[in-house]
Amino acid sequence: MIRKLSGAANALFPCLITNLILLCPGTSKNSARFLSGLTQSQVFTHRLKNYTFIMTESVSGRTTCHLAKTMSEWSFSPSTLLSLPLDETEENYVRGYVRNAVFSKVMPTPLEKNLQLVGTSEDALVKILDMDPSIAETAEFVQFVAGNKILPSCTPLAHRYGGHQFGVWASQLGDGRAILLGEYINKRGERWELQLKGSGLTPYSRGADGRAVLRSSIREFLAAEAMYYLGVPTSRVAALITSDEGVIRDPLYDGRPIMEKASVVLRLAPSWFRIGSLELPTKLGEVSTLRTLLQFIIKTSFPDLWSSAEENLAKASVSFGLKVAELSYEMWVHWQRVGFVHGVMNSDNISLLGVTIDYGPFGFMSEFNRRYVPNTSDTEARYCYQQQISALDFDLVKLRESLGFVIMSDHELAAEMKASLIREMAEGFKILRRKAEVDLKLAFLKKLGLSNEVHYDVVEQLLLIMEESKADFTATFRDLSEVDIYKVEEVEDKFWALLETKRHKHFDAFLQKYKDALQAEEVDEARRQSVMQSVNPCYVLKNWMAQEAIAEAEKGNFEKVRLIERILQKPYERQAEAEKLQFGSKVPNWEKRLMVSCSS
Q1: Is 348 tagged catalytic?
Q2: Which is the catalytic residue, given 130, 132, 175, 348?
Q3: Residues 497, 529: one domain?
């Protein structure tokens, strides 16, 4: 059976196919013969520019895709981003304002001193980039990630955007140290954008050096992959390299700069556009640029809305805004349920696709604290755990303002229609906000194996007990999922978090109310434990775990980084190796002294 490719792939390939294999320039149709296991396979060749795409469809329904083992076997897909307004100045130097452009063309700055591969995500390489894991062992792959090997199909760009930082308009920001290498449509028909973070100066570097350091790069690598396996919408990291090239940083902004190792992260996202991408042209009154960018985003990332956008962009803006809000609130629910705090929810860090991007001073809660703040720069707790919803509300208001500008700039619409569309969007956002609050309640009910909103008071009582007991957020829920709720008095010492929670004077009252709710919903013990264990992880990336990996990596030993990444691939399963390393145990006291900031 032939299945239809999604989104951007269909725009490029009118043929309906099950598989897409991107081969290097000059590949002939006969090269498809290496594909084994295909029965009565049909092979189609579609040439675009200098690239040959071999598409395969198996009558048996079983398909195979060649995984590239060398960089010469792999190419970017033809760029659609180049159709967007480009900076007329191609010389790479820092500028205060770039006008009427979405991107600037810029080449990565080579990183050469003793390059070393810190780690890779095998899942991202294979399932997203169609690369064989062995490709990471090649020198050319390391050179590619370092920004030293520029493929003929590469189209390096730095994105111009603005944003509100801590509630204040920060004007032009942009990719100050990230360069988007190009786009890739994989065998699943998924469109991904590859970006090198830490790859050197761009017009948007704002006085910085365009580099990232090993410390922050390891945190992003581990966090992005951990979030993916937790089931949280997120960008991905395919690989991380470091070098002996030194860069000076002041990690805590306390006047004590240190020399750190320059590193580069190869990170992936379906799109790197964020709310700030629309804010800057709005603020500068660049109507044409804004409309062109919005049309592009809808066409590539929200194809279901494209037909209406072609007909009337102003009306489609409402549907687009509501979809972005819906995805953003869904992301927030996931953050809350796993105890994740982003740390810097500025509007330039909020994706238009509802995926977590720009991991900086983030943190996973240890002790449950509604005002948990991982970022030392956030002195007013603007982005603390309980305020993340308010921060997101603020950012979505800025999105609405940009979309409202698109609506108001449509001279063919009557004033009453413009006002009606803006009201419709505002009301729709309010409805989605209320839905998000309900979804959060349901997510927390599920963490206790419940499903009826009428029993949410059970959740509230437990959270109050946890906060007053300073109970570990992750471990308490997991412990509850692994013990017989009717034999809690017999709980073993290994359930340390639950034992600490049990000491609270109101725990027995909570327990009885919890049992009553389970009986009212007719949830038996086996089902309760099964549901709870599917949503309550054993392990999340605690700051102390990341710090231990960083300390080893700075000495040249990357095994701890790779080990943690491997363990966090199965966060909902108890693992002997993880238990031995105490990843499921009470956090060490020294974690409380760890401080993270925006410095990276």
Answers
A1: yes
A2: 348
A3: yes
